[in-house]
Design a protein that fits this description.
mainly alpha; about 75% helix; about 0% strand; globular; Permease of the drug/metabolite transporter (DMT) superfamily; cell membrane; transmembrane helix; membrane; transmembrane
């Protein structure tokens, strides 16, 4: 049973990386019709609506109390609220290449936080493989070229805060998934995203007097397709998958899978957008794959006693 649960967790982490990797393609489509914060608001509105439908029909039972919401609130604020907010504002002052390099450090931060707060111990070999996967991502972005002229301390700090938010989420969710049911965590996270990003978007529109254009992007079929993918799959499903994986594997192992999204994005660009594939893409991809496999290998002895995993998840 333990091996089956481990296999399911790794499959969830892999599916999570696949969905996130393809999401960049749909973000590009959505950006043709709406601004970043409007996209975030609409995607989490759809995510929250999709999460609410099974609850309304009684397919999913939630037993959420106010004290549960208050306990989960810090986790939901870390991701999606702070993660996406810092990222969106950071990209105003930094290039996507700079952001990609900084956010590649998430597994390193996660490993440090998990070791301190969760007492997760990794071997030097696992640390080395994690660094290798980080180096693979950085290598691809560096070879693509970093626009130095766009460099900004403010942008770098905001992107760094986004990476720290993600690492702290990976660490905090590891404990929360042992305390709460996965659907409860996912539902509250979607609700927080819905409230936060709609509030930000509406305040921005109110300040500029453009509230009447808030739903204009839905006139475009391409935007509807993109927002359905981003809302249902890239927000709701990935939240559930990441929480599921974190309930069964170590936080630093889960975070290493995030780098596979870079490979998926790269392949999608070549196949769908007809972008060119250079040698450094392949070299970086090899480093990422080896790093992820190595960091997740059973290189350290497991404790003989494992915490019992709730069967209702």
């Amino acid at each position: 049973m333990y091996k089956n649960q481990q296999t399911s967790a790794y499959l969830a982490a892999l599916l999570n990386a696949l969905i996130i990797g393809l999401s960049f393609l749909f973000v590009k489509i959505a950006l043709q019709s709406a601004e970043p914060f409007d996209i975030l608001a609409h995607r989490f509105t759809l995510a929250f609506a999709a999460a609410t439908i099974p609850v309304l029909f009684g397919w999913v039972k939630l037993s959420i109390r106010l004290k549960d919401v208050m306990a989960i609130l810090p986790l939901a604020l870390l991701y999606p609220a702070l993660f996406f907010s810092f990222q969106a504002f950071g990209l105003v002052y930094s290039s996507s290449s700079e952001a990609g390099i900084i956010q590649a450090s998430i597994p390193i931060f996660t490993m440090v936080f998990a070791a301190y707060f969760l007492k997760e111990r990794s071997t030097w070999a696992q640390k080395g493989f994690t660094v290798l996967s980080v180096a693979g991502v950085m290598f691809i972005f560096v070879m693509k070229g970093v626009n130095v002229e766009s460099a900004s301390l403010k942008g770098s700090v905001l992107i760094l805060l986004s990476a720290l938010s993600s690492a702290m989420y990976n660490t905090a969710a590891r404990k929360m998934t042992q305390r709460f049911r996965l659907m409860e965590l996912t539902y509250i996270m979607s609700a927080i995203g819905f409230v936060v990003f709609n509030a930000i978007a509406l305040v921005r529109h109110g300040a500029s007097g453009t509230v009447g254009t808030y739903f204009h992007p839905f006139r475009e079929p391409g935007f509807i397709l993109a927002i359905v993918y981003l809302g249902v799959l890239s927000s709701l499903v990935t939240s559930f998958m990441s929480n599921y994986a974190l309930s069964r594997i170590e936080a630093f192992k889960m975070s290493a899978f995030n780098h596979l999204s870079t490979i998926v994005t790269m392949i999608a660009g070549v196949v769908i957008l007809n972008e060119s594939l250079a040698w450094y893409h392949l070299a970086g991809a090899v480093c990422i794959i080896i790093g992820v496999l190595g960091s997740n290998a059973g290189l350290r002895k497991r404790k003989q006693t494992e915490k019992t995993i709730s069967m209702n998840r």
